[in-house]
Amino acid sequence: MRRLFVSALTLALALPAVARAQDKPLRxxxxxxxxxxxxSLGCDGCDSRLNGVSGQLSLGGTINxxxxxxxxxxxxxxxxxxxxxxxxxxxxxxxxxxxxxxxxYLTAGLGVAGxxxxxxxxxxGSASGTxxxxxxxxxxxxxxxxxxxxxxxxxxxxFDGGNFNFGQIGLSLTWP
Length: 176
Hints:
1 helix; 9 strands
């Protein structure tokens, strides 16, 4: 009898919290996202792709339960034997959630790209160009304010002298 009473009391206390959580919008106000993963860089005329480390940092505001607008910074880098190659982008981006109550999203953006290469003791060089971002992800709610988000992004950069691109797959944290 005591177990039944404790169970009923626990359920009675928990139901209002569950109801409030279901009424709370999934996306609201300011959002922030930071992630890390692996990536692969390629270029026009390249015979193969280079594997390296990649990451992303995004932030912005919520327009409604389907649309988030913001800025996204994505980067890929590889260092080996004193040589470092890096490609990055900074884009105005949109995240679109097809379902107002769903967790899957598509992302797209346009902006600027940077490409740099350096060899220790020899020197370095860099170039800038235009960037395009396409990606997708899925928010897995950990709390009301934090999601674990697996993602894939493709970033293309057009530079004088050629086009480069990198794909990245990773895991990020998103607030809210």
